[in-house]
Amino acid sequence: MTTKTMTGVEVRLNPEGFFEDPSQWTREMATEMATADGLALTDKHWQVIEFMRREFTEKGTGPTVRVLGKASGVSIKELYELFPKGPAKTAARLAGIPKPKGCI
Amino acid sequence: MNTPEEFTAEKIKKVSIIISKGSLEGIYPGLIMANGARAEGMDANLFFTFFGLDAVHRNRIDHIKVATVGNPAMHIPTLMGALPGMSALATHMMSKKMEELDIPPIHEFVEMIADTGAGLYACKASVDMFGLTSDDFVPQVKDIITVGDFYDLAAGGQIIFT
Predict the structure, then answer these.
(1) What is the CATH number of the domain that holds B122?
(2) Are B102 and B35 in contact (CB under 8 A)?
(3) Would you say residue B73 lies in a domain?
(4) What average pLDDT does the segment A26-50 reach?
(5) What is the ipTM of this complex?
(6) Taking all residues of chain B, what is their mean pLDDT, rounded to a whole number?
(7) Counting beta carbons within 10 angstroms of the beta carbon of residue A30, is it exposed (0 to 12), middle (13 to 18) or buried (19 or more)?
(8) Residues of A within an 8 Å Cβ radius of B
(9) Which of A4, A27, A39, B108 meets the CB 3.0–4.6 Å disulfide criterion with B104?
């Protein structure tokens, strides 16, 4: 585990940069992480990030790309344009939730 | 628990995966690896050759079956595996299980992988051998290419044969 100061707050992260404690997350932190990744967050990005948090709250795990494509209102093609480094993984990190488990 | 060292090794940036078999269990691993590569932000190409072409064949993509004969891991006697309907039954059971695990059917999976930006290609030698043309394939197949073209596409990445 490592810690990082985001928006002036000490945040606990795992070695891959995912939040250890999703309740520490704020929208401002997502913006700060995205900026560090070279991503400028648009409304579409936020739609995905908010969907990730809702799914995590309801199900205890982040959605797969398949679920994102079917239920977030953003198509798989668009998801990869928004998050070129992998939508499920990047959006989960920006949303302050654990990396989605599973192979799909 | 993952240690930081595991994340400092240089990551694979690109994979080119060859699918050469036309059974359900021959096709899925390559699709899962290609989809997984894109999910991790790697570039991915899929090259369909020999019976693997069935995975992108317009009329066959929805009829891919599990091989129940000559497969000791099925744990049923070979003769029983040869009974009519056995392959369909095994396919049905496996597809149901996969749906529960959120693994898409092959047709949807092929469309999904193309949407991730991976390149799907058919092998020219096999296409010629089976007397096929580009019209025989689902629209996600970008091109029919030679083995030389494949190596050019694969340059700088890893090649996986399945």
Answers:
(1) 3.40.1260.10
(2) no
(3) no
(4) 94
(5) 0.89
(6) 93
(7) buried
(8) 14-16, 64-67, 69, 75-77, 80, 84-90, 102-104
(9) B108
pLDDT tens-place string over residues A77-102:
999 999 999 999 999 999 999 998 87
CB pairs under 8 A between A and B: 52
Contact B129, B53 (CB under 8 A): no
Tell me, what's the pLDDT at B101?
87
> Is A11 a member of any domain?
yes
Name which of A59, A80, A104 to mutate to probe chain B: the one with the most chain B Cβ atoms within 10 A of its Cβ.
A104
Q: Is residue A75 part of a domain?
A: yes
Tell me the HSE value of A101 on the side-chain side, using a 13 A CA sphere. Answer: 5
B92 assigned to some structural domain:
no
pLDDT tens readout for residues B97-154: 998 888 999 999 999 999 999 999 999 999 999 999 999 999 999 999 999 999 999 9
- B140 inside domain: yes
Domain total of chain A: 1
Rounded to whole angstroms, how far apart are CA atoms B154 and B77? 41
Q: Is A99 a catalytic residue?
A: no
Q: What is the count of structural domains for chain B? A: 1
In a domain, B125, yes or no: yes
Is A102 a member of any domain? Answer: no
Q: Which residue is catalytic, options A1, A40, A103, A104?
A: A103
Give the separation between CA B157 and CA B24, rounded to whole angstroms.
Answer: 26
Q: Is the residue at A73 inside a domain?
A: yes
What would the two tokens of residue A49 be?
A: 């990030």
**B residues 76-135 near A, CB within 8 Å?**
101-104, 112, 115-117
Pick from A1, A12, A37, A2: nearest CA to A96: A12
DSSP one-letter string for A77-90? HHHHHH-TT-HHHH
